[in-house]
Specification:
Layout lengths: L9 H7 L27 E8 L11 H7 L3 E7 L4 E7 L13 H18 L3 E7 L3 E8 L4 H11 L8 H11 L5 E6 L5 H13 L3 E8 L1 H5 L6 E3 L8 E3 L1 H25 L3 E6 L4 H15 L3
Parallel strand pairs: 3-4, 3-6, 6-7, 7-10
Antiparallel strand pairs: 1-2, 4-5, 8-9
Helix pairs in contact: 1-9, 3-4, 5-6, 6-8
């Protein structure tokens, strides 16, 4: 078993495998009666090549490409009537923060991996975009079972070094996605609220069903520091030596204002908003959300 399989926690998968990720809006997907589609029929067309990884079906190896390059490449196909889920995973430097055993990025990676596993089990397709101040990796959506290995490998390779520019990133990704589906953004959303909302609105303008998983560390939400502390700057911000007691009230007011504003904008534009702290049991957080969403989804 590859090391990156650690992102798939058995307890979480056991709990969510009995659930489904349903499209709340009408999107371009229909499979096994789970999703309402504006289309009829079914077709499959070639999308792109990617390198072979162990577990891939050798029937999809492009032997002509192998003959020219002496390397194995897999033909990827786009199932045009499948629901397409696109996961945008924030790998910016602020996501590296963690007051406990896992960082925000590690927790977000577990969320992304679990949802990808769930959707592939539905026989739907999943794509992935890793971003900081630009899109660092973009993996087209595929419904092949072995595609989970491709996604987990890219998540495992991610390095958090830059700041976030969400408006530019979301505009970029929105233009790369050719058909309507579900877009899930997993991030701490540490950017200007106008930038975040402007980018999210682009996805809604393109007809996507959008879900925001807002990942916060518990210390970011509660600010429990007591003694004089040197706060390390992230995403090009300087270090600050401060007395936590003197700034706690102002800090919490600012954080809570940001949380209220982001949630309000999401509700206004029919975007799902789910805040999760990185110390919450992942199986509980995801199963609770998915069960609630399934109860409200358009059938």
């Amino acid at each position: 078993m590859e090391d990156y399989q650690r992102y798939l926690e058995p307890a979480t998968l056991n709990k969510i495998d009995r659930l489904e990720l349903k499209a709340r809006l009408i999107v371009e997907g229909f499979i096994a009666g789970l999703h309402k589609s504006p289309y009829h029929g079914f077709s499959v067309e070639f999308a792109e090549h990617r390198e072979y990884v162990p577990g891939d079906d050798i029937r999809h190896v492009d032997w002509k490409v192998y003959g020219k390059s002496d390397r194995y490449y897999i033909k990827q196909y786009e199932e045009e009537t499948n629901l397409a889920l696109h996961i945008l995973l924030d790998m910016s430097e602020s996501m590296a923060y963690g007051s406990g055993p896992v960082t925000k990025f590690e927790y977000a990676s577990y969320v992304a991996a679990s949802l990808a596993h769930l959707v592939l089990n539905q026989r739907d397709s999943v794509g992935l975009a890793l971003f900081d101040d630009e899109v660092r990796q973009f993996v087209r959506a595929s419904s092949h079972p072995s595609h989970i290995n491709v996604l987990l490998r890219e998540i495992d390779r991610a390095s958090k070094v830059a700041k976030t520019d969400m408006a530019a990133i979301f505009h970029d990704v929105a233009e790369r996605i050719s058909k309507r589906g579900i877009v899930i953004v997993i991030s701490d959303f540490f950017d200007g609220i106008d930038s975040v909302v402007k980018g999210l609105r682009h996805f809604r303008h393109k007809g996507h069903d959008v879900i925001c998983f807002h990942i916060l560390d518990p210390f970011e939400a509660s600010f429990p520091f007591e003694r004089m502390t040197l706060f390390e700057g992230l995403e090009a911000k300087p270090e600050i030596l401060a007395n936590p007691r003197a700034v706690r009230k102002a800090y919490l007011e600012e954080v809570n204002r940001f949380l209220r504003d982001l949630r309000a904008h999401c509700l206004k534009h029919r975007i799902d908003y789910k805040r999760i702290q990185s110390d919450e049991p992942l199986d509980v957080a995801l199963s609770t959300y998915l069960a609630a969403r399934a109860g409200e989804a358009i059938s």
